[in-house]
Write a structure and sequence with these properties.
Rossmann fold, 201 residues, two-stranded antiparallel ribbon, alpha/beta
């Protein structure tokens, strides 16, 4: 099996980037393969342009960089998104990657009578937000549920992809990073056996 690990953080030595690397190491330890897509390092353009809008309406093919990202996902059985929580959401570059790459005709397709054809039923998704605060804060403000509504359901269920895990690494600014990175390695090891649950503290 093969995972595409997507990381969105502007700093190459960030905890998020280290978490993505440890997940990849865990995957490798189980004999599976992976590819890391570092959106910032690769200078992915997250802006939804006129060309993307034309592709949405199927007036033209998607831009070449979008097709390249779709091909990466097509090679994967599992998609892993690793990102810091910014303003109770994901970084703009990751949201833009989703906006552009999960396009009409590839991720989903409008059918007659307004029905939506979900085209990513073969894909399993794992979401891992790196959060500076604690689990209690998320629960008090309802963010854990909001994330599942916005991302798990609003994006991936719409395309038919199954969200296998949807978790956070909490207290990332105060906890010993060694323990967080060991958790990330465990997530990688467990990714393909259905038990890749992150600790919630």
């Amino acid at each position: 099996m093969h995972a595409l690990v997507v990381v969105a953080h502007p700093a190459p030595k960030s905890l998020s980037r280290s978490v993505a690397t440890k997940i990849a190491e865990g995957i490798s330890e189980t004999g599976h393969s992976f590819e890391i897509a570092d959106l910032t390092a690769e200078a992915f353009d997250p802006r939804f342009s006129a060309a993307d809008f034309a592709a949405y309406h199927k007036d033209t093919a998607p831009p070449a960089d979008v097709i390249a990202e779709q091909e990466r996902i097509d090679r994967a059985t599992d998609l892993v998104l690793v990102y810091p929580v910014y303003w109770w959401s994901m970084p703009a570059i990751l949201k833009g990657w989703i906006d552009r790459v999960f396009s009409n005709g590839w991720a989903y397709e409008y059918a007659p009578e307004g029905k939506v054809v979900k085209k990513l039923r073969h894909l399993r998704v794992h979401l891992l937000g790196v959060a500076g605060t604690d689990a209690g804060t998320f629960e008090r403000h309802g963010y854990s549920g909001a994330m599942k509504t916005q991302i798990d359901h609003g994006i991936f269920d719409y395309c038919g992809a199954s969200v296998a895990t949807s978790e956070f690494l909490f207290d990332s600014e105060t906890r010993d990073p060694v323990s967080l990175l060991e958790t990330a390695r465990t997530i990688g090891r467990d990714l393909f056996n259905g038990s890749g649950q992150c600790e919630a503290a």
